[in-house]
Specification:
The protein is of the alpha/beta class. It is built from 20 helices and nine strands.
């Protein structure tokens, strides 16, 4: 059995998702909250960092709007209303989630027949509604066969009524929406390619790193994605521009994304800034803001209980919620904070469908090192930093198989 994961790297982003991500509200581009946390030189650095993405999104919106206006049904799913970070953490705009689930269908050479398409659509909504926000922690997986099933599932969802209505409407219009998405994707690709020049340097830098064998596996491991795989698993990676600092790992279930050899594929959507942002956040653990963020993440009784439970044994969301007597939505919120600070990691295996969370002991060790550095001289810190760089170089000697 092979102990390497075979990666296939898409040359382009998924342009339909890029288009809808540009048209919808984006907290980190539309809100000044992030910038207002800093002042002076730090704020100027942040503004300079965001400028290409604001320019890219602005150009995409200008060119996309007259095209999408020819598809009024799609425009109904453009959510440009301001949302706070908390709301966006727990619920993406319906069209974004829908596109994530249907990417493998929309990128095929042609749409499947009517019966197969209906099966794919129902399965996509089943996964959307099973994303961990059910009030009833004992409820099983949602089975979607018709609109009544969607209504029943939404009754147990901790979402705003307006969001529930959008999901319900999306299901009722699912076939027409797919036809319009299929029709408009050529225009989205053309517009996307023309606007890519605004972030070309950052896009090219990311793709160059991805082409280095072993880079992605090592990086995913550092981020807390413990991918276990065997000879029948491969991975397809799609770069993302608008979601430049996010990563999503999706394992296709049987019948989806299966290649000619019968291998079941994982799909990863990879933000083009993840390499550079990781290096900036983790290269200097004496960084006061970075250390403080991690300490704040640990400075909550619920999150400490989560850490205590996970150090005993890895758990999936519903199981952890039941242990803590909390709703999955509440636990998911706290897991997101701990995950963003590198204090927990997820384990995805081919044998189990669930995603398991576990403590990232390396992340906790880094917090400990950051505190210990307060007692070090500058020379001692530089020596420690060089030693850590040498260790990282030694770990980054993978030889995975790559195709582009």
């Amino acid at each position: 059995m092979s102990d390497k994961l075979n990666f296939t790297i898409s040359k382009d982003p998924f342009w339909l998702l890029e288009a809808m991500a540009c048209m919808n509200y984006v907290e980190w581009l539309d809100s000044d909250e992030w910038l207002n946390k800093s002042s002076g030189q730090v704020r100027r650095i942040k503004e300079e960092f965001l400028l290409p993405y604001r320019s890219y999104r602005g150009a995409m919106r200008t060119r996309l709007k007259p095209v999408l206006e020819q598809y009024p049904m799609l425009m109904n799913y453009v959510d440009s209303s301001p949302r706070d970070k908390e709301s966006l953490r727990n619920f993406n705009p319906p069209m974004i989630t829908f596109l994530e689930m249907m990417q493998h269908v929309l990128e095929a050479k042609e749409l499947p027949d009517e019966e197969e398409l209906e099966k794919e659509l129902n399965h996509a909504f089943q996964r959307i509604l099973d994303n961990g926000v059910s009030k009833n922690t004992d409820s099983g997986a949602t089975s979607i066969q018709n609109i009544q099933d969607v209504m029943t599932a939404l009754e147990n969802q901790e979402r705003e009524d307006a969001d529930k209505f959008k999901l319900l409407r999306l299901y009722s219009e699912r076939r027409e929406v797919m036809e319009q998405l299929w029709s408009v994707q050529g225009a989205c690709e053309e517009i996307g390619r023309s606007c890519l020049t605004l972030v070309q340097d950052r896009f090219d830098a990311c793709m160059e790193k991805l082409r280095e064998p072993g880079n992605l596996e090592t990086f995913l491991s550092k981020l807390g994605f413990n991918l276990q795989y065997g000879e029948k698993y491969s991975c397809r990676l799609t770069p993302a521009i608008m979601q430049y600092n996010e990563i999503m790992v999706h394992e296709d279930e049987e019948g989806e994304g299966v290649d000619d050899s019968g291998s079941v594929a994982r799909r990863i959507r990879f933000g083009i800034e993840l390499f550079s942002s990781y290096e900036m956040r983790f290269s200097d653990m004496l960084n006061d803001d970075r250390l403080l963020d991690r300490l704040k993440a640990l400075g909550d009784s619920t999150r400490l209980k989560i850490m205590h439970n996970l150090v005993e044994s890895p758990s999936y969301l519903q199981e952890l919620a039941k242990k803590l007597k909390l709703t999955p939505a509440t636990v998911l919120h706290h897991l997101g904070i701990l995950m963003s600070e590198g204090l927990i990691e997820i384990q995805m295996t081919g044998e189990k469908k669930r995603v398991y969370y576990q403590v990232n002991k390396q992340g906790l060790q880094e917090v400990s090192n950051g505190i210990m550095q307060l007692a070090m001289t500058r020379q001692e810190r530089e020596t420690q930093k060089r030693e850590q760089q040498m260790k990282d170089m030694q770990k980054n000697q993978g030889d995975g198989q790559w195709t582009i």
